[in-house]
Amino acid sequence: MTAQLAAALAPPQGRAGCQEAHPFVALGNCRRPQAERYREVFAADEHDPEAVAIAKAICHGCPVRPECRAWADETRPPGIWAGETWAERTRRTPIHRDRGENRR
Predict the structure, then answer these.
(1) Dist. CA 68–CA 65, nearest whole Å
(2) Where are the beta strands (DSSP E) in the chain?
(3) Is residue 87 exposed (0-12), middle (13-18) or buried (19+ Cβ within 10 Å)?
(4) ∠50-52-30 over CA atoms, to 5°?
(5) Rounded to two decimals, what is the model's pTM?
(6) What integer pLDDT is reported at residue 50 of this predicted model?
(7) Torsion angle in degrees (nearest 10) through CA of 102, 91, 31, 35
(8) How far apart, in whole angstroms, are the C-alpha atoms of residue 38 and residue 89?
(9) Could you state, in order of their start, the residue ranges of all structural domains in the chain?
(10) 84 SS3 class
């Protein structure tokens, strides 16, 4: 693990209030000041193994990972959430499609 990544994973040094739509996000490892330089890796292409590895390392041990995972399962946003890529999340929680049962 690089020194920069270790710094990103260090405990937060305190933050002002965070204006987020979802309160749990403000408490995540990804919002720590030390992780600021890595913010773009969470929106990286899933085929960029280095970016995915950095994002997953930041998510590992995050105190709000369960909340983040539940939100990502419900909303299915692109990018890496709760240490999982979009493809990993959809494999774990497949989309249930209407197979015509509700058609008139």
Answers:
(1) 5
(2) none
(3) exposed
(4) 115
(5) 0.68
(6) 92
(7) -160
(8) 21
(9) 3-9+21-92
(10) strand
